[in-house]
Design a protein that fits this description.
Elements (H helix, E strand, L loop, with lengths): L1 H8 L3 E6 L5 H21 L8 H28 L3 E6 L1
Antiparallel strand pairs: 1-2
Length: about 90
């Protein structure tokens, strides 16, 4: 306990720096979630199980739309998160 108090007493300055964050991780997470949602919608609509080429194209379009919207929303959500880092100077 005394070491912690002594360490706090030796800190003379605290800075909080804003660190730039890549939006790639949010975009990829959103893309994955959107892809899963697109597959679920396409499968529920029965477009993936048909022998019809137009039906399969519609299913593929639903999956691609889900992927695109998911990537967009993931990037926007990641941009809203502000990252900061505390630095203690002695």
């Amino acid at each position: 306990m005394s070491v912690e108090i002594q360490a706090r007493a030796s800190v003379t300055e605290i800075r909080q720096l804003r660190i730039p964050d890549s939006k790639l991780n949010g975009t990829l997470i959103g893309m994955g979630a959107g892809t899963v949602a697109g597959i679920i919608v396409a499968a529920a609509g029965g477009t993936l199980n048909t022998g019809d080429t137009a039906g399969r194209q519609l299913g593929g379009a639903l999956i691609m739309a889900g992927m695109g919207f998911g990537a967009l929303f993931g990037c926007i959500a990641d941009a809203k998160i502000k990252g900061s880092k505390l630095i203690y100077l002695k």
